Amino acid sequence: MSFRVKITIVITALVALLFSFGSSLMIHRSYMNSITREEQEAVASLEMITSAIKMAYERGGLPGEENLLQTLRRLGSYETSTDVFLLFRDEEVIYSSDEQNSYGGIASSAAFNSSNNSKFANALNLYGIDLSKIKKNINGYDDIYVSYKNSFVGMQYIISSSKISIGENDYVLSVVRDVEFVTTNRQRMHKLFISTFVILLAVASLVSWGMASLLVRPMSKLYRATQEIAKGNLSFRSNVKTDDEIGQLSRRFDYMASEMEENVRLLERTAEEKDRFMGAFTHELKTPMTSIIGYAELLRTTELDPEDKEDALNYIYSEAKRLENMSLKLLQIFVSDEEKIELKQVNPKTLVEDVVTHLTPTLEEQNIDIISQTEEGTAYLESDLVRTLLINLIDNARKAMEGKGIIKVEQKIIEGGIILIITDNGKGMPKEAIEHITEAFYRVDKARSREQGGAGLGLSLVAKIVELHNGNIKFSSEVGVGTVVTVTLKGGPNHE
Asked: What is the pTM of this model?
């Protein structure tokens, strides 16, 4: 069952319950008020008759019972209501106003067409009068007892009775009032209630459905958004523009979807980099391993002269060293992802000059000059990693030379760290290469780098060392002119 249907059912049921309770209470109160009013009028009518009888008796003129009957006949002739007056002596009905009324009254006159002695005997059953109970509850002349006659569907008669004593005889005067019209009104109101209830139920259902649709519409958007995202459409958003709780939930959901989309992109980018890494690494391993295996097989199966044998051994050695260097650089990259470096206060001037001094002989053999320009001061660095950074950058500058060249290494002290600038007058790089230069295994000139023992991992390691020192690295290069690498190191996460 959908949430919209649930809301419709709940609202409709609530309206039906409240309307039913309120209408039933109103009908019941109206009915009881009408019965009470009719009872009061019946009692007032009885009091009026007993007062008239009392006044007539006090005047005298006729014997007691005749005077009583004459008074009742006279009052009955003026009675315009449907009330019926009954006069009892002992258990016998000796008078009924219905006998003389031309319009009938409550009881049919046919009910009194029996013999003279039992002329009104049926009145006891007809009106439901329990005379013994009336006599028992009437204790004096002015005492009035009220009883009711009920039918299956409601009240039928209200009977008010009073005892009258004349001479030695006791009489019971009863006024029977027809209240069936009150019950009929109640039944009519019940029918009206049922028809109104059906109409109200239909209207409430339609209104509830409309309200539920308005309330559920933002949730439907959220539901569709979950479906789209589940299908892989991570750019889909619910875009619910409301200020209520559902609107807040929608904004949270869209924010979550944005974060998830970004994380998926990062995962995809990482997966692509890993695929590229594995492909390049496999390619790098394939070439030297093929050469090593080939020359080893040649030495194992063929008799070579000393010069060829030395050449084969030297080639195997150089390729193995290249594999060793590449493996060590890979290990350094992976270790730097895991370990927490400890920064210490060092003198960067001494560190830079030491690296330049140790590399100078090797560079001079290749007809490359290297000069340094340093400043005094101290900074928080990891000296071994910074040394590796300098060696890799200088080695990249060496590989960019085509014949005689010059490499300049500058070191400056800044607030909270240092700046290193390595400049060469090599062949330079195109602009599109600078964007990928720090990616693992990326090489601008693949053939030349392989000839010079490069694996394309040096600048990836440099970028990682810069990251560990909370710094940045910038490349500026022009083809045929040279390259300038600017590195800023400001200390790592443990630097206080």
From this structure: 0.44
